[in-house]
Amino acid sequence: MMATKQAAPLFIGWDVGGWNCDRNANSRDALVVLDSERTILGQPWRGNLRKAINEAGNTQEWIRALLDCCKIETTADIPPVVLAIDTPLGFSQAFRQLISGESVAGPIEYWNTNPYLFRHTERFLFQRGLKPLSPIKDMIGSQATKGIHVLARFAPENPNTGVWTSGGGLNAIEAYPAACKPSPLMHELLSSYRTAPAGQQVDPWEMAGFSFGINHEDKRDALLCALVAWLFHYKSNALCPADVDTPAGEGWIFVPEDALTTIESEGVESRR
């Protein structure tokens, strides 16, 4: 009996907007879908996924809704998907223990070491020059609960630190587009989606020059997330692995390893 050839996966980047981001002209949900060759499929999309989240009855319907947003035709058999999401996909263990009445943390000192405000993965990035936002103290609580809600409904299994799965068909991770900025690897990958006159150097982070429907910063960040999803599947050693001390359930932000090396040596500051 011949083995059935598994379909090549798709890679979806989701830059998350708030629950009611259709009222926010500056920041909304954005989606970009890549194939195994990193080709953008369909049309990059920007809007509000709240209706799609509410109406999807299962994981396959959720994936199909994302592909429909990007005008990608699907057959009965949807290929496996790696979804990289730009929002915190967990809250710190100390914060969860605090609100449940289990325990309190020790003395609170510096803002960027506060275990209520930041997860282990965020404090890990602080030590390497980044300044990720907090779902507690910054204005991203809406986005964080939206992403966590989607995981709970459509990818509820958490077999490895920072990885969620439906048990088949969908794997999800957390990405951080701003952390890609110093990465030579991400610069190289991102250059495929830009056009510029011959001999002219273009800043890969400037919106001017993007093609293939990448016409807003939200879509650019979704593209970066999709590239992180592609790396996670094909070149996982290019991403910084989860630290062994990460508490269960907090999640992990997957960023390019070469970005952290550059940030650590140059002291570059960034934000989500």
Describe the structure.
The protein is of the alpha/beta class and 272 residues long. The protein has one domain. It has helices at residues 50-55, 59-69, 93-99, 120-126, 141-154, 184-190, 217-234, 257-266, and strands at residues 10-15, 29-34, 45-47, 81-86, 157-160, 163-165, 170-175, 253-254. Strands 1, 2, 3, 4, 5, 6, 7 and 8 form an eight-stranded mixed sheet that branches. The longest helix has 18 residues, at 217-234. The relative contact order is 0.19. Residues 262-272 have low confidence and may be disordered. It comes from Microbulbifer epialgicus. This is DUF429 domain-containing protein.
Descriptive keywords:
272 residues, alpha/beta, 8-stranded mixed beta sheet, 8 helices, 8 strands, disordered C terminus, DUF429 domain-containing protein
Question: How is this fold's topology laid out?
Answer:
Elements: E1 10-15, E2 29-34, E3 45-47, H1 50-55, H2 59-69, E4 81-86, H3 93-99, H4 120-126, H5 141-154, E5 157-160, E6 163-165, E7 170-175, H6 184-190, H7 217-234, E8 253-254, H8 257-266
Counting helices, strands and paired strands, the structural category is alpha/beta
Bulk shape:
globular
Order of helices and strands: EEEHHEHHHEEEHHEH
What number of structural domains do the residues give? 1
Average pLDDT: 89
What is the CA-atom radius of gyration, in angstroms? Answer: 18 Å
Short description:
29% of the residues lie in helices and 13% in strands. The chain has 272 residues and is of the alpha/beta class. This is DUF429 domain-containing protein.
